[in-house]
Task: structure prediction
Amino acid sequence: MTIVRFHGGCHQIGMSCVEIDTKKSKILVDCGMNPSDNSLPKINPNDIDAVVVSHSHLDHCGAVPYFNFKNPIYSTIPSVDLMYILWKDISKLSKTYPEENIQKAMNNIKAVNYREPKKITSDITMRLYDAGHILGSSSVYLDIGGKKLLYTGDINEIETRTLKSADTDIDEIDTLIIESTYGAPTDIKPSRKALEKQLIDEISATIEKGGKVIIPVFAVGRSQEIIAVLHNYMRSKLLKRVPIYVEGSLVHTTGIYMSHSEWLNPKIRNNLENRINPFGDVTIVNKENSSEIYNKEPCIIISTSGMVQGGPILQYLKLLKSPKNKIILTGFQAEETLGRQLEDGAEEITPFRNKIPVRGEVVKVEFSAHSDYNSLIRYMKKIPKPKKVFVMHGERYQSLSFAMTIWKNFKIPAIAPTAGSILPLF
Ligand SMILES: [Zn+2]
Ligand SMILES: [Zn+2]
Result:
């Protein structure tokens, strides 16, 4: 019997890590860390014959260098480049692992293309499918002695500015492990167009008042999507052209987006080929120009980290002393982050030693790279019907709700396992 051990990413978003034990081999699918407290899964790395990383977000790849795996680590070509930057960041900021571990992990990586079959152990063949979530993101499809598992990873079922929608053209599935970030029936998000308009309206209102807009973002995915949206609206003159300052690791990750254009939405690829660079309207903050941000008005500042927990964004929070300025939160804000405090209406925040009164406006335009509830259901309808489903990568309510939805709407047994669960996979 093949069994699955859920090490993390159960009833939570963070630390996704699933171990699959067959008669002949043991592999990990994802090996993430919990970005809000840097906690890591508890595994024995010496047992592991292969690691497959679905994409380069820290909740899926962050713990890999910590374990010094001696066997190969598989991921897509762009994911490898992106992971290198993120791992370096983590090792610098949190000292979770030393730099030499990153080098060792890089030496063990085998980069693959989408849909390329790869025998990763004596009884497991792997294929990665485009998950539509961030550059190089994949759903992991495993043939385990003839039985088929699809681990969706983080998926986006709709097309975005930067990426195609998730690839659902998949053969057959015995067991499905699906994410549930927006798995509750109340998790219905506005259309992409409406969201873009909301973002542009919020920015325009502040620019008109002569204020500055601060946008905290995740280095991979959200930042490139927002830069591409701003480019599009400025180009079509629906948004006034003001300086866009960028800072942090997103500068490097955006470079990687540009250098892997064949993995992006073909529209972006065409633009790049016609020398229209959707990521090119930005000014990188350096020593010489950093004072402009405070002296010149208005402007837009895009910087990491997305949950306002560290990164260069912290130094711009003092701009919130002025009611003219605005911060736009663009994604999920975990508990106990500064982003969550702002979202919850904190009157003052303490990013460093001194308290900062929050007089500027705080708004949230959730620019998610995940499928919402309806979109998850559409995804389920597009893929072949599995015999069994495990639901993970969602807060408790979301995971449990989506498991119920699958039972009710699709008549497939579905559970949302807790961390530590050991269950039969087939
Ligand atoms: Zn992700
Ligand atoms: Zn994730």
Summary: The chain has a mean pLDDT of 95. The two ends are 7 Å apart (CA to CA). The first strand starts at residue 3 and ends at 8. Residues 55, 57, 133, 154 surround zinc ion (ligand 1) (CB under 6 Å).
